[in-house]
Design goal:
By secondary structure, the protein is an alpha+beta fold. Helices cover 26% and strands 26% of the residues. The protein has 5 domains: 312 residues, P-loop containing nucleotide triphosphate hydrolases (Rossmann fold), CATH 3.40.50; 89 residues, Beta Barrel (Elongation Factor Tu (Ef-tu), domain 3); 71 residues, Elongation Factor G (Translational Gtpase), domain 3 (Alpha-Beta Plaits); 124 residues, Ribosomal Protein S5, domain 2 (2-Layer Sandwich); 126 residues, Alpha-Beta Plaits. It is globular and about 95 Å long. The protein binds guanosine-5'-triphosphate and magnesium ion. Guanosine-5'-triphosphate (GTP) binds next to helix 3. This is Translation elongation factor 2.
């Protein structure tokens, strides 16, 4: 567990306060960058955020960062554990731009935070620990960004100072893991300015080459940087004042820039034409000014043809300013995405996060998609068809708020006073025409995989406990709770998530309770005797009808298990529900206006939540609505579809049971490896791969080709080549990847501590539900009281 020092001295310093009071709301939306840092756990997002804050005008002077703690990880639980739990958004002035910067958690248990941040950003910097390359959750967050169509992205290959860091392998891992077919290197690391030290990668990183601006940056031990323009004459590169002439990087500088321009020109005819007009001599590409390159880079980043790649060391503040410049230059602004920028356009905003504060009450984080929001105004929650009153408006500087009178188009801020709004809701001005009342894309909470009973201390604690759970699930929609057989169950995304939930219920919501034994959540799949689809039998049979409220209502459904390659929707708990024309219905609550198919979908959802055989939620079903009658009132369709669906499931018989599996990445020393592996296999884990910590995912099948991309030669990543030849030692870290049932791993924290003498570390990532064996099925049925 990492420990951090508190930065309270900074908060209390006069400097800090002065800076806070000078914040102004930006009014030029083209200068706003709504962006987030996303990545696998521990890749350095919060450290980079801190570095950005220190180098921006947020905190005026540097020099005190090294004392530890960060501005954005301000919750006690975050400081204690050294991990980010909730995303914090913070407006940062950077040169001409204002970044609304969101630092997100990397731990998959807090995936909801990445989910909602992804919904409101126009750009994401994805970090990679350059020792590890692309990791499981890197791919996880990448999918989340895809799901919400985040238009612009950049990679930051962090931790270049670490022994074993490899720029080259990290870059190749982007291709091998199919993150992007065209990563484009904008900056190169310089391990050392001394040729001898460089070959040993000591001290790790001292400088960067900016291949676009054609500059070289050097950092001294105190973190001060100097920028040297590079010559545009190839001969002059061999006699630089700031780099010894025998430095191994020199012969690679011109080829790296040439390749950047040539690769970019493959996507841009204009640039190709510019390059073709240049004289055919080695130096000619070096003279192309960056102002002639950036517009092409920007355009191709927008079109997702290329993925810009920069690098550095957040902890040493190396590369932070270059990365931020490129965010400003390459990322989309609110005016670049679909919007209505007219000054008098009606207000339209999305609530992307809701939190509770003892003093201020409900705080709703919003992004303004058109118009502007003023304090003390009325708004309409279009998702819930509910009027709301806005009291105050705030800009959040992490935990410190600054009150403002309005939030203009493009802004991200906080609204006080809203009573009913939940994460994902669309809000509009009350007088908005019906056309602009349509709701925007919702935010999808990930599936719960673990639960625990919540036992109130006394009868009088019951209601406060339920209220606390209701409030908590409003701030974190990935927390669900329900009543099963007289017990309150709280469901979450993992063991750590439940631990944090327990703490928050007590500390924030003052509930008195005990948490019972943790249980993983199970699912039931469709039984074997399901009916064939309707085109293979008489169209409407008695099984397609339900008697309800004195009428016979028809709801014809085709039900079968999902097939290989078909993916269920997270909003449907892993099921796929299609309308009559075969289009997936996005969610059971996808619209406030009821139409017959949505009413039927709602009945299907009710039935799926509890199997008639095991009472478990059902998953991995493929359901298509085929036909229905029109009863009066129309709402009878919901009850009818629930009855039809339940009868069909009963007839199909009990299906296989499924339990959640997780991918574990365990890092241990060579001498404890054997014990750790034995323990994993004894607990039902399948070993996936054993590594030495420097993986570029090269064995991953079907990666993107290296052709057409610039992959720097090995000599430009001296740190990793050193480590490879260093031989094994008992202290050498080994990495074990394993797929294991969560039920066997609930106590893995303490088990690993005991097995590894406290030195082992692990992280885990949900790998979905898997069908269990027959003996395990019996065990589960006994556990849930069904056998
Ligand atoms: N050597 C080295 N360590 C770094 C660097 N950046 C971050 N770290 C360390 O890596 C660890 C994780 O850093 P964080 O900034 O908390 O990582 P994070 O991505 O915010 O982690 P989560 O929020 O928990 O996902 C800390 O111990 C940092 O000191 C870096 O550039 N070099
Ligand atoms: Mg963090």
């Amino acid at each position: 567990m990492r420990r951090r020092l508190c930065l309270s001295f900074l908060r209390n310093s006069p400097n800090y306060c002065r800076k806070l009071s000078t914040k102004v709301v930006p009014h030029d939306p083209s200068k706003i960058r709504n962006m987030a840092l996303v990545a696998h756990i521990d890749s350095g997002k919060t450290t980079l955020t801190e570095s950005i804050l220190l180098q921006s005008s947020y905190l005026s002077t540097s020099g005190s960062v090294d004392t530890g703690s960060t501005i954005t990880d301000f919750l006690p639980a975050e400081r204690e554990r050294g991990i980010t739990i909730q995303s914090a958004s913070i407006p940062v002035k950077w040169k001409d731009w204002t970044f609304n910067l969101i630092d997100t958690p990397g731990h998959a248990d807090f995936g909801m935070e990445v989910e909602s941040a992804s919904r409101v950003i126009d750009g994401a910097v994805v970090l990679i620990d350059s020792v590890e390359g692309v990791e499981a959750q890197t791919k996880g967050v990448w999918k989340q960004l895809d799901r919400y169509g985040v238009p612009t992205r950049m990679m930051f290959l962090n931790k270049q100072d670490r022994p074993g860091a490899s720029f080259r392998s990290s870059l190749r891992s982007l291709l091998n893991n199919r993150l992007h077919p065209h990563p484009m290197v904008l900056t190169l690391p310089i391990a050392s300015f001394e040729p001898q030290d460089y070959l040993h990668a000591e001290p790790g990183i001292q400088g960067l080459v900016d291949l676009v601006k054609w500059e070289l940056w050097r950092w001294d031990q105190d973190g001060n940087s100097t920028c040297y323009p590079l010559p545009t004459d190839a001969k002059a590169l061999e006699a630089l004042k700031f780099l010894p002439s025998n430095h191994p990087i020199i012969p690679h500088l011109a080829p790296a820039r040439t390749q950047l321009l040539e690769n970019l020109s493959m996507f841009s005819e204009d640039l190709m034409e510019t390059l073709l007009t240049l004289p055919s001599e080695p130096s000619s590409y070096l003279g192309v000014h960056h102002s002639d390159i950036i517009p092409h880079l920007r355009k191709k980043t927008f079109e997702n043809k290329i993925l810009p790649v920069v690098c550095g060391s957040a902890i040493k503040h190396i590369g932070t300013s270059l990365a931020m410049d490129y965010v400003g230059e390459l990322f989309a602004s609110p005016v670049d995405v679909l919007h209505d920028p007219a000054k008098n356009a009606p207000l339209r905003m999305l609530a992307w996060k809701v939190s509770w504060d003892q003093k201020r009450g409900w705080m709703t984080y919003v992004r303004i998609y058109s118009g502007k929001l003023t304090r003390q105004s009325a708004v309409l929650n279009a998702t819930r068809n509910q009027k709301e009153k806005v009291s105050k408006l705030l800009l959040m500087y992490a935990s410190d708020p600054v009150e403002v009178d309005e939030l203009p188009f493009g802004a991200v801020g906080v609204v006080l006073g809203l009573k009913f709004t939940r994460t994902g809701d669309t809000l509009v001005s009350p007088g908005a025409p019906p056309s602009s009342r349509t709701v925007m894309q919702d935010i999808i909470p990930p599936k719960a995989v673990i639960s625990a009973s919540v036992i109130p201390h006394s009868h009088s604690d019951l209601e406060p406990v339920q209220n606390a759970l209701e409030s908590l699930s409003r701030t974190d929609p990935s927390v669900r709770y329900d009543l099963q057989e007289g017990q309150i169950l709280v469901h979450g995304l993992g063991a750590l998530h439940l631990e944090i939930v327990e703490g928050r219920l007590r500390d924030e919501f003052h509930a008195n309770f005990e948490l019972g034994k943790r249980r993983v959540s199970y699912r039931e799949a469709l039984g074997p005797n399901y009916d064939p689809p309707h085109f293979e039998r008489p169209f409407i049979s008695k099984d397609d009808r339900a008697d309800i409220a004195g009428s016979s209502v028809t709801v014809a459904l085709d039900i079968r298990p999902l097939q290989e390659g078909e993916e269920g929707s997270p909003l449907w708990d892993g099921n796929l529900v299609l309308d009559k024309s075969g289009i997936p219905i996005s969610s059971p609550e996808s619209s406030s206006t009821a139409n017959p198919e949505l009413l039927i979908a709602s009945g299907i959802a009710t039935t799926l939540s509890s199997s008639p055989h095991s009472s478990l939620p059902m998953s991995h079903l493929h359901i298509q609505i085929r036909e229905w009658s029109i009863p009066s009132p129309l709402s009878l369709l919901t009850g009818a579809s629930a009855i039809v669906m339940r009868n069909r499931l009963r007839k199909a018989g009990m299906g296989p049971l499924m339990e959640p599996y997780f991918l574990f990445k365990v890092s241990v020393t060579e001498d404890t490896l054997g014990k750790v592996v034995k323990d994993l296999t004894e607990h039902g884990a399948e070993l996936q791969e054993l590594g030495d910590g420097i993986s570029d995912g090269a064995d991953e099948v079907g990666g993107y080709s290296e052709e057409g991309n610039y992959i720097p030669p090995d000599i430009l990543s001296p740190s990793s080549s050193n480590l490879n030849s260093a031989g094994r030692s008992p202290e050498l870290k080994r990495i074990v990847h394993a797929l294991a049932p969560l039920s066997q791993m609930l106590d893995y924290n303490s088990r690993l501590r005991a097995l590894s003498g406290g030195h082992g570390q692990f992280n885990m990532l949900s790998a979905g539900f898997r069908v269990v064996t027959e003996p395990r099925k019996m065990e589960i049925l006994r556990e849930i009281g069904r056998a």
